[in-house]
Structures are given as C-alpha cells and as structure tokens.
Write a structure and sequence with these properties.
The radius of gyration is 33 Å and the shape is extended. The chain is built from 23 helices and seven strands. The chain has helices at residues 7-26, 34-52, 67-78, 80-97, 103-126, 139-163, 169-200, 202-234, 245-262, 276-283, 285-305, 327-342, 373-389, 412-423, 431-450, 455-467, 477-480, 488-495, 497-506, 515-520, 541-556, 567-576, 584-600; strands spanning 55-57, 62-64, 266-273, 309-314, 317-323, 359-365, 395-397. A five-stranded mixed beta sheet has the order 4-5-3-6-7, sandwiched between helices. The chain has a two-stranded antiparallel ribbon with strand order 1-2.
C-alpha cells in the first residue's frame, strides 16, 4: 500500500485511524436545546478566530494559541460529547476555508485533538473530577487532565517529526519543554478563567474571553515586532548594514554546534579588502566609508542568494558562515565572488596596485575535532594571511599540512623565549612541574619529528608542551606538594588547572593556538576525561598527542602523590589504555620512539 510506504506515513495512518475510531465509538449527540446549539457554534467560531489571532511571545516568536484553553474549558464545563461536537464543527469549517492545506493534515489534526480530548476527559473523571463550576476539590483532577492533554500533544506530534527524520528525539523534547512550558501553564490557567466567565453568562463570558484574547494578540504582535526591530538594530553594523562582530560570534557558535551534531560540513571565510588603507590615504575616510558600503551591498546580495551568513568582522575585514558547505564548494563560491568584485568599478580603485577592487580570503572547514570557534577563526585567519603573503587578490583554503607561520611576526625562537620566562615562575613554587614541562617539551620535539605534522602543527605542539601545565600556578602549594593521595576536593582543585591555564594563555593573543593543548590535554579518547568529557576525534589531534606524552612522563618520574613506574611498566600501561585513555594511532609510534631513546641512553 502506498500509504504505508514510509514509517511516517504508516504513523499518520495509524494515528488517524485510532482518532477516528475513538471519536466514532464515544461520540453521541444528546438532545440539545436551541440555546445549546448556539453555544456550541459560538465556541467553535471562537476557536477559529483565536487560531488565527495567536499571541506572539518574544524573543523567539513562540505563539500561544487559545484553542486548547477553550477545549479544556469546554471539557470542565460541559463534558466530553459537547467538546467533541465543537471539535468536529470547527474542523469542518476550518477545512472548508483552508482548502489549500493537504487533506491528510486536516485528518491528522482532527485525530490528534480527538485523542487528546478523550484521554484528558477520562483522566479528569477517573481522578474524581466533576463537570460544572470550578471547585477547589478539583485541583488535582485539573492538573492531571492538563498533564494528560499536553503530554499526548507532545508525543503524537513529536513522533511524526522524529519518524520523518526532521528532528532529533532528545533535541525535540528538550527544546519543546524549555520553550513552551510557560505557555502550557498559561493555557491551563486561561481555561479555568474561561470556565468562571461562562458559568453564569455563557455567551457573554465567551465573547469577553475572545475579545480579551484578540486584544492580547494585537498588543503582543506590536510588542514582538518592536522587539524584533530593536534586536535587529543591536545586531547590525551601523555603517555597512551587515551583521556585527558580536552577533556573528553568537551565530557561529550555534552553527558549529549544529554542524557537529548533524555531521554536516560547515565552512568559515575571513576576507579582507586589499590595500584599503591606501585608498583611505588617497581619498579620505568619507570616500572609504562609501566604498565599504558599496562592497558590502555586493557581498550581502551574493551571500543572501546562497543562504550564507555574512558579518563585518572589523575594519575592512568580513566573515561568512557557510552551513552545509565543504571547503571546495566554498572555494568556488569565493572565487566567483572575487571575480565579481574585480569587475565592479568604483571611482579611484584604478590607482590601487591591481587597478581594481579586490580582496584576499581564507577558508577553514569545521572538522569533528575542531575544538572551538576560536580555532576555526584562527585557521581561516591564517589562510587569509597566506593569501595576502602570496600577492593578494587570492582565495586560500586552510590545510593542516601547509606551512603557516605560528603567528605573523612571531617566530618559534621568540615564542620559546617568552614561554620559558613564564615557566620559570614555577621554580619558586613547584620544581616538579617546571622539570616535568621541560621533559614533555623535549618529548614533543622528538615525537613531532617522526609524525606527519605540518610546520605549524610542530610549532604548536612543542610550544603547547612547554606551557601545558601553566594553570598549576594557581593551585595552592600544599596541594601541589602533598605526599600521598589527594582528597576528592583536592583532586577537584587540581583538575581546575586546565581551565586556569586556558585563562592565563587567553590573555596573550599571540598564543591563542595553544589554548586547546593547555585546556584539553587531560581529555580521554573514551570520553571519560576532563574538563568537558570530549571523546575520539572531537578532541583536537595535538591535544591527543600531548595527552600521551604528558601521561608517559608523569608515570616515569617521581611525583608527590603517585609511585614511579619503570619505562617498561609505563609502555605496558600505554598499550593497556590504547583506545581508552589514548588515541591508538599514536601509541606504537611513541613507544617506538621512547624505546629507541632509552636504548641509546
């Protein structure tokens, strides 16, 4: 059968069938008076109106529809048959006016509401709830009825999206509960308010409730539009109209997280207008600002067409977030954009070195082991500087095996000298950590020579090795030098050294590439490490390598709180923990290296 071809279609058929069967079995039409019929149609029409005029709630535009308040109030006041009759009348009228909506959606919606209303009613009756006026004794039945109604709503609708593979089950329920719990509670309270209004004056009470809901809808719509307008202004760069730097960082964090969770590619571009300072010097800042506006208008048009997020990163630098785009597609897009920019004439650009408007850009693709947005930005930035160094008006893709300088004008020798100075602070507080860091550094130098690492990776690994424990400077001396096993609270303090180390290194922009090694060298391959419990290749490669080096030296040298192992015992421990604490691909090469070094001593 075609209708049962996919899981979601099978689910639609089963829920629709169950809803119709339940409705048909339980529905009966008692002898209603003319006034009763007027009330039934009035309630159905009120639901139609309030479905159209929903209450928009900032900041995300969640909407509060009053239809469920009316259905629940109808259940509490008139019972099951009355409410089901209201539902069927509302569905017929709504389907007649909304014929563009697929018929199966009307059927499914009707069935879901039928099941929700029926189950909520019997939950109310079985907990000794009584139909009619609001009673304090009905408090528990009201709550159970309400809980049943909305639990079914979450399950019946959510399972469809999950089966259709448009939602992750955990994310769906987490997001729904977080975003809508307040609106659900409001719905229950409003249903009780409606019962009170209708108990004495049914039509007037319903009319009053509908009017109040309508006015709330208009007021909240205006409030929401004002909120959106203010939020958009706060997120925009005044001069160019593009998204600003802070909003870009916020969106990048969300997009990177989403890309990792869905295992979809994401590329980041940093681009810089070539020789913009020269243009400003020639024609002044006012003309320079106008050139920026022209350039940004073109940039926005092209990025909007491709559904990319573009922002002003700072000065004449811009950033583009490209979801669902790998580095090669990003390269093609940026090269096409570069040519369009070259062909866009602006008065005065003929005096620039290339005789036209141009930019240099770097592309970095988010990988599973990408540690943070800072790392991604750093890679895109390095690729952009490489494009500048190769003559400008170029697009460069970041490649871990391509030689990049550690930082512009920041040589390995200068970096070592600076870090060595910081490391010597340990001499007065913790000689063990000083000596341990020096040994780990030497292991990193030797190991990086036999691994297939780029020059940039070698520099990062060796510099990270010498400073990886810098956070221990914040740990009290009595804990650092304690003889014997650390107490649980002391161990928690000791584990904080990775976070404190990150904070120390973060103060120096030239050393930002070292942050993952300082913060993550105690993460484990099996996800049982700290501080985040990252696992596998979600841990940056260099941090996985440093974990092995650091652990080996810690095992083979005297520590206050742990007995020393021999080289052979430590090698056995490395093998036993391969695939658990350590990345197995680096274990045997490291063992081969230390075995060779030990045999030559």
């Amino acid at each position: 059968m075609q209708i049962l071809k996919t899981p979601e279609k099978t689910y639609l058929f089963l829920v629709s069938s169950l809803g119709f069967l339940s409705f048909s079995f339980l529905m009966s039409i008692p002898q209603y008076s003319q006034r009763d019929w007027i009330i039934i149609f009035a309630v159905a029409i009120s639901i139609l109106l309030l479905n159209y005029y929903t209450v928009l709630i900032p900041p995300k535009g969640n909407s509060l529809s009053m239809d469920s308040s009316i259905y629940l109030a109808s259940l509490f006041l008139y019972g099951l048959h009355f409410t089901l009759l209201v539902l069927v009348i509302h569905t017929i009228i709504f389907a007649a006016f909304q014929r563009k909506i697929a018929w199966w959606k009307h059927v499914f919606n009707f069935s879901v509401y039928s099941l929700m209303i029926i189950c909520a009613y019997y939950a109310f009756i079985f907990t000794s709830g009584s139909i009619g006026a609001i009673q304090i004794d009905n408090t528990l039945p009201y709550l159970i009825c309400f809980f049943t109604y909305f639990t079914l709503n979450l399950l019946l609708v959510g399972l469809y999206f999950i089966l259709a593979a448009t939602e992750n089950i955990i994310n769906y329920f987490k997001e729904i509960i977080k975003e809508t719990i307040a609106t659900y509670v409001s719905t229950l309270v409003l249903s009780l308010v409606l019962v009170i209004l209708m108990k004495n004056e049914e039509l007037f009470g319903l009319f009053l409730f509908t009017c109040i809901s309508f006015l709330l809808s208009l007021a909240f719509k205006q409030h929401f539009n004002l909120f959106k307008e203010v939020a958009e202004k706060a997120n925009k760069d005044f001069l160019t109209g593009l998204n600003n730097h802070s909003y870009f960082k916020e969106i990048l964090e969300k997009k990177v997280t989403a890309a990792k969770e869905s295992d979809q590619p994401l590329s980041l571009v940093i681009l810089d207008i070539d020789d913009f300072k020269k243009f400003n010097d020639l024609y002044g800042h006012i003309e320079g600002d106008h050139l920026l506006q022209v350039f940004c208008a073109l940039l926005k048009t092209e990025c909007d067409a491709a559904n990319y997020f573009v922002a002003r990163y700072g000065g004449e630098e811009f950033s583009i977030i490209m979801p669902n785009t790998n580095r090669h597609t990003a390269y093609s897009f940026m090269n096409e954009l570069r040519k369009k920019v070259n062909d866009t004439y602006y008065k005065g650009v003929e005096r620039l070195p290339y005789g036209c408007l141009s930019f240099s850009s770097g592309i970095a693709q988010c990988e599973k082991e990408t540690y943070s947005i800072s790392e991604l930005l750093s890679k895109a930035d390095q690729a952009m500087y490489a494009a500048k160094n190769q003559g400008k008006n170029l697009v460069q893709i970041y490649n871990g095996h391509t030689e990049y300088s550690f930082h512009p004008s920041h040589s390995l020798e200068n970096a070592l000298e600076e870090l060595e100075f910081q490391l010597k602070i340990f001499l007065s507080k913790d000689v063990y950590t000083y000596r341990h860091s020096k040994r780990v550094y030497q292991y990193a130098v030797d190991f990086s020579r036999i691994l297939n690492l780029s020059d940039h990776e070698r520099k990062t690994l060796t510099l990270g090795a010498i400073i990886h424990d810098i956070g221990k400077i914040e740990i009290p001396r009595d804990i650092l030098n304690k003889k014997g096993k650390l107490d649980p609270h002391e161990w928690e303090i000791m584990k904080m050294h990775v976070t404190w180390g990150k904070d120390i290194v973060s103060t120096n922009k030239k050393l930002e590439d070292l942050i993952p090694l300082v913060e993550l060298h105690h993460e484990r391959f099996d996800g049982k490490g700290y501080p985040y419990g990252l696992a596998g290749k979600s841990i940056p490669k260099l941090a996985r390598i440093l974990c092995i080096i650091d652990s080996f030296d810690a095992m083979t040298t005297e520590r206050p709180y742990q007995k020393t192992k021999t080289f052979q015992e430590a090698i056995l421990e490395l093998r036993n923990c391969s695939g658990k604490q350590f990345d197995p691909q680096f274990i045997e090469p490291f063992i081969a290296m230390v075995t060779k070094l030990n045999s030559t001593v």
